[in-house]
Amino acid sequence: MKAAISQIIKIINTFFFKVVKLGDNPHLKGKVLKHMHSQSFPYRGVFIPSVPEEAKTSLQMYANRLKEEYIYTYSGRVIIEPVFGWSIIAYRNLVKESVYSFNDEVKVPFPSIAQYFKPTKKVVTVDSAVVVRLGWFNYWHFFNDILGAILLLRKEGLLQSNVSILIPEGLSKMSYFIQSLELSDELRSYNWVVQDENTYVESSSTIYCRVLDNHRKQFDEVIKLFEPYLVKRATAAKIFVTRRGTKLRRLENFCEIEELVQSYGYTVIACEELSLKEQIEVFHNASHIIGVHGAGLTNIIFRRSQQLNLLEIFPENNIPPNFFWLSASYGFSYNAVVGSKEVNGSFYLDPLKLESLLLGK
């Protein structure tokens, strides 16, 4: 019964709201200022090294996906709902650029009509807003999509003192957000506004920004925020980034794999057990890194301008390109090893397969 009611509510929400695009929309002429917009295949033609065939196939597939980068400003009344971050204009129109979409397909549920029309709902008014919340619960998304967007807006001169940076309450409690502000004077200087799940925000002018995935131009700007903490040690290290305490992409035989890499001089680390400052220093000084695909590998950016050999471990049925592309951008040496299919969050890696690659290093 509950499922049926939930489905009916979802249909009503979908029927009431309409998604509109800001880009080149004749109905919004005079309301939308396009600062920049580009579409490209930034990784098409990038040399793919001698990785396993299943990894190569996946990397080639991702390279053929169109990527988009834009900045728009909408001048006019906008209501920003608190659950998904939808911008609502002209009473019932949802701004497509305010949430995540892929190949024009919106991946986010519509807002609740009941909450939207609730007469007692809390509304906070700001002069100008930029909403950054894409993947806020993920370390890589925080660096790529949130800090990347903020730093692009700064570069374009759009982060004026009257601009509020809206973030969901969940992000404000994340250790990487808290520690980033502790380490960066620039980030502390911005006007962050935390939006809880019961508060709507009304803005007179709203900025929408999207950056390219895994592109060096925004990560170089991120690195500058933390440059004082790139402390070089006397000798470079070899590290293995474990995921033994996570819900996804866990190695079934992590004890066996960790013992193997330790016998080759690798130190096992868990990023979640290190502060942001410690992660920056550890990865800055790592010449060899092995790790299962996960957001912690974002830290390879802190090895910029130095030699790095990255060996990434994947389950057979989940081979995203993030760190291959980052490695290509920074000129790092990259290889991959593929285990069994991931089932219920874990997969098996043949230690002999891994050791054959360790012997070649």
UniProtKB/TrEMBL annotation:
Pfam families: Glyco_transf_61. Transmembrane segments: none annotated. This is Glycosyltransferase 61 catalytic domain-containing protein. It comes from Rufibacter tibetensis. Residues 139-304 form the Glycosyltransferase 61 catalytic domain. Keywords: Glycoprotein, Glycosyltransferase, Transferase. It comes from the Bacteria. InterPro entries: Glyco_transf_61_cat, Glycosyltransferase_61. The keyword Transferase applies. GO terms for molecular function: glycosyltransferase activity.
